[in-house]
Design goal:
With about 700 residues, the protein is of the alpha+beta class. It has helices at about 1-10, 10-30, 50-60, 75-90, 115-120, 135-145, 155-190, 195-215, 220-250, 255-285, 290-330, 340-350, 350-370, 385-400, 415-425, 435-440, 450-455, 475-490, 500-535, 540-560, 570-595, 600-635, 640-670, 670-675; strands at about 35, 65-70, 90-95, 120, 125-130, 155, 220, 375, 400-410, 430-435, 460-470, 495-500, 565.
Amino acid sequence: MDRISGGIIKHKKAVVALFFAAMAVCAGLYLGVAVNYDLADYLPDDAPSTRALGVMKEEFGPGIPNARVMVKNVSVSEALAYKQKLADIDGVGSVLWLDDAVDIKTPLEMADSDIVEEYYKNGNAIISFSIGDGDEVRVTDGIYALVGDGNPLSGEANDRAWMQKLTSSEVANAMKILIPVIVAILILSTEFWLEPLLFLFAIGVSVVINMGTNIFFGEISFVSNSVSPILQLAVSLDYAIFLLHRFSDFRAQGLTPEDAMRAAVKRAFPTIAASAATTFFGFLALVFMDFGLGADLGLSLVKGIVFSFVSVVFFLPAFTLCVYKLVDKTKHRHLMPDDWPLLGRAIARIGIPIIIIVCVIGAPSFLAQNENSFTYGFGNLNQTGKSGLDTAEINREFGRETTAVLLVPKGEPAKEAALAAALAALPRVREVLSYTQAVGAQVPEEYLDKAISEQFYSGNYARIIVYADTPEEGELAFSLVDDVRGAAAAVYGDAYYALGQSVNLSDMEDIIKRDQQRVNIIALISIFLVLLIMFRSLALPFVLLLTIEAAIWINLAIPYFTGSSLSYIGYLVLSTVQLGATVDYAILLTDHYKENRRMLPVREARRKTLSETFGSILVSGAILSSAGFVLWASSSNPMVAEIGLLLGRGTLLSMCMVVFFLPSLLALLDRAIAKTTYKAGFLFRKITG
């Protein structure tokens, strides 16, 4: 480290210029990073719905209907004209309306009224269609231009379009709120008005580099795009704080700025490396998810931690030495105390009751967090915005609608008709659209217009579309998916494919649940090994992990006890992120406790440790929890907002566990820790008689 820090100091201007150049290049690259808003794309290639989608695209081209528009106050002929205009929009496919279900050349009064009212009611027409991936914003804008804003548009594709419009502005808005909050928190804990800007600039450079280098992935998910920069900023600010606090300490001892920085890099490096390692491995566990969204977010966060570490070790020392004279001119009195002696005494008095309370709360929380009600998709996206209001209006007039598609072997009309009849008899199924239902098994497809027959038949498969009155996900929707698959299997065995939003989410549920145990075990084992190496102790890793895991259990049990549902992706991500990000607080406190126990008895060591570390834990926790709550408050995407809420609340719980529970547990297990720690050197008073 002496050689590295010496090189940084000697070539500080070149180092700063290099990082500035990298930041400028990556800022430009970030503009070219594609963002994926389709959760189905992250299902494994061997998932049934993924294979089904591949067959669908190969055989039929355009996807299944994923949007619908209600055109008000139109005649049948006007509705048909709108249908044709919709089909003419580039990016729109599989346009379906009443004429695909009944013969509209005959009077509608002679048709089945239930079928007619599925498409045309009270002078309003509801037209279903598909929008291709990546075309959502352009196509929905074109549809609104065609039908007018007064005619509502809904569906999965429309939700994705609104997300794309909102996400970039929401990240910027979140940063506008978060950065002033972080600056205010840092000002309380520093002695220079400009010092917080050094912290933010060092990590900001790494955030820009991280987001720009995502271009090498080809694309990133909307979750990574929204969450990654904010989490990276909040989690890795500690590295910069550690370094510059050491720099200030050595300058206060009379060293020159260059010597102080050289000593600071050497002294702070082990702490920064250990802190980065726990966070790194916590995030790395996400990469081992079968559901690709976890790997996408995990790689983005892991890469961010690496860039933050490099930025703090190389860029921050060089940049600080370039501007320290300017920073020195902004000195102010310390606004937050360095020591908190009263807190240490107060917590020491209630140590045993705290342990009892945590045990009483922790056990049911551990059980409850596994019994949550989960969601897997976008949930109630933007219910108060245009998308949500449009969806509500369509649902009031025509009811809820989810679509499932079955692809079955072509050339067996009797089987096709039998399956369509079985599907129509299922609870919550509103309509089944197939060739045998809409046209008739006795009519050869050669007699029909090709545009009609292609809706139902490809070279190898017949397509059956099932419309159901269920939400996109949940027990009701997934039960119907099982029934649809069961009906198809009863007729065709394994020779069928099923797809649709509810089908995708059902597969997602199965895959993500399998990921949970593997991801949590990998995170726990990897962080355990880091703690084992760092503390050279068998007992301490268990103590620290128990402290943070208890906070995670309580955090994830709150939705169960309040009767609210929880995004499973948020649940899974939080389990690793809260562990990796907040175990640093426990490391800091435990490291000080070990040092103090070499000179002081248990009670005095506990009091002194709390007095020394509370301020640092408070500042770090306040920054991370603020980042979480800002995400929660600023995002209209329920999945991103829930990750923010869980992180904000979880950080506060981890802080409380580290400050109140961990010191008491360390004191209670003091002798066991001493015996299982290599060269612990704890002070024990000898009893003489």
